[in-house]
């Protein structure tokens, strides 16, 4: 099998990083890559290298079949349609159906840890997509990606500015991992797939509480950062008072709920085993990012 690889979400941060690792680290020839995005013009540099760039619209079932034509392995990078109306799951199921109809021989999907039990509000979307992938009857690769280290940019700069980090995660731990390390691991698995269907959980090498992370941040920036533990309800009220749109609050709070429940604490060696390289530690990320975090 020639194993032509299709990557959706190619103009997104994770999708593009996977493609770059396929080309640079895994030595995949551009002619073996097909990449999909809603905005093909953003990937002119890849097209110039000989990568096939196609328009992918997850809301266009017929277009998906056409886009996936000729692909042996189809990686479905989960979409960002978090509207609470079931759009994301519908899109994912449409992509799975289209890949099978187009003649794909292997499916791959980016999920999240403990999808079957996670308290993250959109975990059911991932679980049901995993089920759709398995029900397709093809060999599959499922990548359960832990929280990116880069996600901390959503909370730490504001927390450092005030000196207080409001959270309901309690003593829960999160195995933060660099997005690029996940991308390198996924690229390696796509280029050298295992003989059998496999689910990987891609995590950092250690899981930390928010208090431990705050200590790293204070040491790196020289600024005090106090963790203030709240209930989920108090955290939601605080977000509302701060002007966070009501539609986003339950999802944001669910991240802390999941951390408190241990849903994000699993640590595996899958990232380093697949990528063949040492992962970036959370402390290294914080040290490297101290300027951006401190504002």
pLDDT averaged residue by residue: 95
Output the number of helix runs.
Answer: 13
Query: Percentage of helical residues?
Result: 40-55%
* Count of extended strands: 9
Q: What separation lies between the terminal Cα atoms?
A: 50 Å
Structural class: alpha/beta
Q: What percent strand?
A: 5-15%
Cα gyration radius (Å): 20 Å
- What's the shape? globular
H/E element sequence: EHEHEHEHEHEHEHEHEHHHHH
Low-confidence stretches: none
Q: What summary fits the major beta sheet?
A: 7 strands, parallel
**Strand order, biggest sheet?**
3-2-1-4-5-6-8
In words, what does this structure look like?
The chain is an alpha/beta fold and 295 residues long. It is 43% helix and 14% strand. The protein contains 13 helices and nine strands. The protein has helices spanning 13-24, 44-48, 61-68, 87-102, 123-135, 156-162, 179-191, 210-221, 232-241, 249-261, 270-275, 282-288, 290-294, and strands at 5-7, 33-37, 52-55, 73-76, 106-111, 140-145, 164-167, 198-202, 226-229. A seven-stranded parallel sheet has the order 3-2-1-4-5-6-8, with helices on both faces. Helix 4 links the parallel strand 4 and strand 5 (106-111). The longest helix has 16 residues, at 87-102.
